[in-house]
Structures are given as structure tokens and as C-alpha cells.
Amino acid sequence: MNTERVKIGIEGLDDMMGGGLLPHSICAIIGTYGTGKTTFALNFIREGLEKKENVIYISLEESKTRIQSYMEQKGWNVEDYVDKSLHILKLDPTDFNLANNRIKKELPGLIEELKATRVVIDPISLFEDLFTSDAERRQEMYRFAEGIRDKQCTILMTSETHRDNIYSSRHGLIEYLADTVILLRYVRPSDLTNVHLALEVVKMRMSSHSREIKPYDISQDKIGVYSEASVF
């Protein structure tokens, strides 16, 4: 497709996806602890800010202050954007009614009001935890996904992996709702001398993409994806 892509802002990764995400699509980044899911999401936000877009960051884990501090520690000057083109919302995942209402009912209106073109939900797995049954979770998440698909924005959601399956999200659901799925994981060689970080673009609807597993690392100010290298 020749559609202009929405870049995550990580050069090697964008290259693997033919230049970036498709506009108005949903991307899920799935990984275990320490693989950098939030850092990937913040790069996506930073890229939007640098392109003078309005962005929304919904955190179910870290406070607004900590998210802003985390970005500043990376040398990213975000103070001029906060509450202007960058809107950070902290939701309490233990308050079911508040979190449920704000994400499902208020978010679509907020996207329209702010004319946001990029939205992050980090991590969506804590929102999924709010539902008491798999059937309810599936129904409500499908409704939510359909409700935001027509809002002219690109959504990036992070999810922790399943306790017993590093290739699946916590509830094994978000990868079916998303148009693009990026899996982050550790790779441990048989000699156990080193531990590598590796990623894979598992799926990407309506677009060709690399199916190779590529190494990456996280430094103080950026993520490097080595799209020309192999994991071993």
C-alpha cells in the first residue's frame, strides 16, 4: 500500500513494517517485564509530538509525573507540550467503574475534542483484568476496539505476556483485536553467556512486513533495532 505511514519513531522497527503503522490502525506491543514496552510507547508519543500532532497517553500503572519524568530523563523536552499537545491521563485500575467509563465512554469523545491523532494505553492488560469472565472481557474489548476505529487516530496498546506463554498476551485476546502485533522477548542462547532482547512483527493486516526476528537494545535516550542483523 502507498498510504503514508505512521512512524513509531524507531528506525529499524519502522523499516520492518514498510515505513511504519497504517494510519488509524490498532497496534499491540506484547512483552514480558523488562522488555521496554513503555519505552516503545513513549517513542511513539514523542514521534507524534515532533510532528506537531496532538497525542493522548493513558497510563494504568505510572503517575502523570513519573511518565513525564521518565521522558525528561531520556533528554526529551516535553514540558512545553504537557496539557497542550500532550495529554497524560492516569487511571486507577482498581476502580472498575471509573477506569471502565473513562476508557470506553470518555476516550472516543476526548479524541475528538483534542483532535488527537495518536493514543497510547499502557498497559491494556490491566484494563482487561477488570472483567470477571472471559466472555465479558471478549465482548467488552471487541466493543471498545470497534468504538475507536473510526476516530481518525492510531492506537498503540501495550500488554504483558501470559504467565505460561511468552508468545501470547495476558488474556490471549488483544492480538486478535489489533491490526499490528509486535512481540518483545528475551532470547537466551544455549550456552547462557548472554541474554538478548529480540522483537518480531507477528502480524500486520493490509500490509507486507518483515517476519524475521531482530535484536534490539535500549539505551539512555533511544531504542535501536538492528534490522540487518540476526539474533544469534
The CATH superfamily of the domain at 24-183 turns out to be P-loop containing nucleotide triphosphate hydrolases
The helicity comes to: 25-40%
Q: Count every beta strand, where a strand is a DSSP E run of 2 or more residues.
A: 10
Q: Which second-level CATH architecture of the domain at 24-183 applies?
A: 3-Layer(aba) Sandwich
Taken from the alpha-carbon principal axes, the silhouette is: globular
First CA to last CA: what distance?
Answer: 32 Å
Low-confidence stretches: none
The top level CATH class name of the domain at 24-183: Alpha Beta
**Major sheet characteristics:** 10 strands, mixed
Concise overview:
The protein has 232 residues and is of the alpha/beta class. It contains seven helices and ten strands.
Task: Walk me through the structure.
By secondary structure, the chain is α/β, with parallel strands linked by helices. The protein has a domain at 24-183: P-loop containing nucleotide triphosphate hydrolases (Rossmann fold, 3-Layer(aba) Sandwich). Helix content is 31%, strand content 27%. The chain contains seven helices and ten strands. The protein has helices at 11-16, 37-50, 64-73, 96-114, 124-128, 134-148, 174-177, and strands spanning 26-31, 54-59, 86-90, 116-122, 154-162, 165-169, 180-187, 196-204, 214-218, 223-225. Strands 1, 2, 3, 4, 5, 6, 7, 8, 9 and 10 form a ten-stranded mixed beta sheet that branches. A hairpin with a 4-residue loop joins strand 9 (214-218) and strand 10 (223-225). Helix 4 packs parallel to helix 6. The longest helix is centred in the middle third of the chain and has 19 residues, at 96-114. It is globular and about 45 Å long. The mean pLDDT is 89.
